[in-house]
Amino acid sequence: AVLPRDLVGAVRALKQELRAVILAHYYQESQVQDIADYVGDSLGLSRQAADTEADVILFAGVHFMAETAKILNPDKQVLLPDLAAGCSLADTCPPAEFAQFKARYPDHVVISYINCSAAIKAMSDIICTSSNAVAIVQQIPPEQPILFAPDQNLGRYVMQKTGRDMVLWPGSCLVHETFSYQQLVKLKVRYPTAKIIAHPECETPVLSLADHIASTSGLLKYVQQDEAPEFIVVTEPGIIHQMQKAAPEKVFIPAPANNGCACNECPFMRLNTLEKVYLALRDRQPEITLAEEVRLAALAPLERMLAMSR
Ligand code: 13P
Ligand code: SF4
């Protein structure tokens, strides 16, 4: 495709013409974050999607995020720059298997992490994100058993924070599981004054080394408030772009993957580029579509989450 020389200007013009809003996750490449109207974590992005008055939502994130925006906005057009931007974690929870698993626990309330397909949301009672998972579980009466899906690492972290037992679906994110305890210990020896900050999708041994554990927006807030001069960032390094903007005097060290390579970047998030954002707005595709029956079933647990995390 022939692309305009001023891609940023062209995206801005198309955005105005279509009355579109661009929502971007912190794991997007810097250029994409910089063109967005709002950059946030999964909860912030869901809130923005629920409140927007735009006609078109261009979602610079992965499929389950754009799908969430569509669930909340059936009458708006939701565009995803690359339809192949999936999620390894969402893929660890196929609907047919999950239905069988859930049937074994008929008296359990099903809390699903937002990183799952609409079909899994439709089988859930409440959705949560990494920033409200603990608060949502704390609102469930103590005698009520809980089934938590699909991320077992976040599930274990929530169990530890709340003292609740939960049945866990054995899913995980390939990006957060590349971080290793050994690599992190080595890094801490090199940077003894650095604080380790980690996302709860990391495995328990990695989390045990962290000074602070939070969602992406929680980590961003922490580096602005804490006095440490250096931070070892144990999540997808896209978030460092906003950290550098918010605290330019501080140093952010991306945690390496276990073999020392740069595969700590989410390959799905990084499929979106500024060029594809432009093309999606120009062509008004790829578009997210959903069967109304699934959408309605997935909407109820999402609305429950929004109501429980005000
Ligand atoms: P949050 O930004 O909500 O912490 O989620 C992280 C993530 O893995 C998104 O895919
Ligand atoms: Fe999915 Fe992990 Fe990528 Fe987030 S970082 S979109 S959980 S694969």
TrEMBL record:
GO biological process, one term: 'de novo' NAD+ biosynthetic process from L-aspartate
Cofactor(s) this protein cannot do without: [4Fe-4S] cluster
Residue runs in coiled coils: none
UniProt keyword annotation of Metal-binding present: yes
Catalytic activity: iminosuccinate + dihydroxyacetone phosphate = quinolinate + phosphate + 2 H2O + H(+)
Keywords on record: 4Fe-4S, Cytoplasm, Iron, Iron-sulfur, Metal-binding, Pyridine nucleotide biosynthesis, Transferase
Subcellular location: Cytoplasm
Binding site for [4Fe-4S] cluster: 87, 173, 266
Enzyme Commission number, as recorded: 2.5.1.72
Keyword Zinc annotated: no
GO cellular component: cytosol
Pathway(s) this gene product operates in, as recorded in its UniProt entry: Cofactor biosynthesis; NAD(+) biosynthesis; quinolinate from iminoaspartate: step 1/1
Pfam families named in the record: NadA
Residues engaged in binding iminosuccinate: 25, 42, 113-115, 130, 199-201, 216
Record note on cofactor: Binds 1 [4Fe-4S] cluster per subunit.
Transmembrane segments: none
PANTHER family xrefs: QUINOLINATE SYNTHASE, CHLOROPLASTIC, QUINOLINATE SYNTHETASE A
Family assignment from sequence similarity: Belongs to the quinolinate synthase family. Type 2 subfamily.
Listed name of the protein: Quinolinate synthase
Species assigned in the record: Gloeomargarita lithophora Alchichica-D10
Lineage: Bacteria, Bacillati, Cyanobacteriota, Cyanophyceae, Gloeomargaritales
